[in-house]
Amino acid sequence: MLPAFWSACYALCMSKYMGIDYGARRVGIAFSDDGGVFAFPGGVLPNDDQLMQTLVERIAGEGVDTVVIGEADNPAGGTNTVQRRVMIFSKALEAVTEAKVALAPESYSSAEARRVTEEKARTRKTRTAPVDAAAASIILQGYLDKLHAGKKG
Fold first, then answer.
1. Which one, of 63, 147, 135, lies nearest residue 99 by Cα?
2. Buried b (16+ CB within 10 A) or exposed e, 45-66
3. Pairing state of beta strands 17-22 and 26-32?
4. Whole-angstrom distance, CA of residue 130 vs CA of residue 27
């Protein structure tokens, strides 16, 4: 058994995160490594009646401590329709899981994911594949990078 100090340190250092790129039709998900340093695409889920249950199961199954949801950016300022949907979704997810729910700037993550995916694509079929999981990974990696930069400073 570890002393209390090391147990607390282990808990902080071994946090697992899930990233979500929420969309009206599809929801991209990503997961961090066990140390919460690197983000990896985790798949695409349909935004249907089973979404919440599926997310709860994946959160529990992966041992996720914190869920990071991409917050839609509105260059004109104020709240847009997508942002309102993200807020409703984040509150609903918070109500059904014990994991902490945080919002992080989306900052054109889908456009970046599409660019990276197209650069790697070799066939027409892969060029048109959904980029939601890659976008979720970009959102999550941005959150993790800021989190770790804050620990250094």
1. 63
2. bebeeebeeebeebbeebebbb
3. antiparallel
4. 10
pLDDT in tens, 43-64: 999 999 999 999 999 999 999 9
Where is average pLDDT lowest: 7-16, 20-29, 57-66, 98-107?
7-16
Q: How many residues does the chain have?
A: 153
> Whole-model pTM above 0.85?
no
Residue 100: its H or E element: strand 100-105
What the block records as the tokens of 99 is: 């994991």
pLDDT, position 121:
54
Are 51 and 3 within 8 A, CB to CB?
Answer: no
Nearest CA among 132, 102, 151, 147 for reference residue 41: 132
Instruction: Give the residue carrying structure tokens 């197209």.
Output: 118
Q: How many helices (H) and strands (E) does the chain have?
A: 6, 5
The CA distance from 21 to 134, in Å, is: 9
The answer to whether the beta carbons of residues 42 and 18 sit under 8 Å apart is yes
- pLDDT score, position 80: 77
Q: Are 98 and 49 in contact (CB under 8 A)?
A: no
